[in-house]
Write the structure tokens for this entry.
Amino acid sequence: GDSVTQTEGQVALSEEDFLTIHCNYSASGYPALFWYVQYPGEGPQFLFRASRDKEKGSSRGFEATYNKEATSFHLQKASVQESDSAVYYCALIGRPSGSWQLIFGSGTQLTVMP
Amino acid sequence: GPKVLQIPSHQIIDMGQMVTLNCDPVSNHLYFYWYKQILGQQMEFLVNFYNGKVMEKSKLFKDQFSVERPDGSYFTLKIQPTALEDSAVYFCASSPRWGQDTQYFGPGTRLLVL
């Protein structure tokens, strides 16, 4: 079935460090791919999406490129800030049982130290 | 971005009682969803809803669960009777269109069943 894998459960960085969070997916066709960010006590906030091979999504300095060959959608940011500390979820929209639904990865807790 | 509201933010209830979780979706959205997140675990799809009907439900959507949106008011998730394993955060989401459209999430209702 459709699935999303995030390899890093936790990432700890200092301010101005470069960030990469890895996301790989398994699905047929061209699923839309998403990044959501979740702050403590809040729901997932849509960050950006991409819908076709080589499309780049971006928002607030974060970006990711849809790579169909590698089945990846890795999140990157050139210079993180303390305010970026949150849980980041990669997700895809699939139809594992006929109806569209978001399928989330397990999430990556990003902690940025001043 | 678009705002989804959820009421209440927290609910503590005795096992066996009924609980209703309320969601106020984005005003021009037509498709509604419930997701469940147990502490420390992945977010999982429960059900989606359109035009007064359940479109699809997952195996997590037990017979004790029901959803409705009477006359354009709140989109509700009712659990009757509740069980200990229903303790989780329940997130409502909505999207304007069907298919691979972006879903926007509310802040969640934290349900504790004692």
Remarks:
- Chain A has a mean pLDDT of 94.
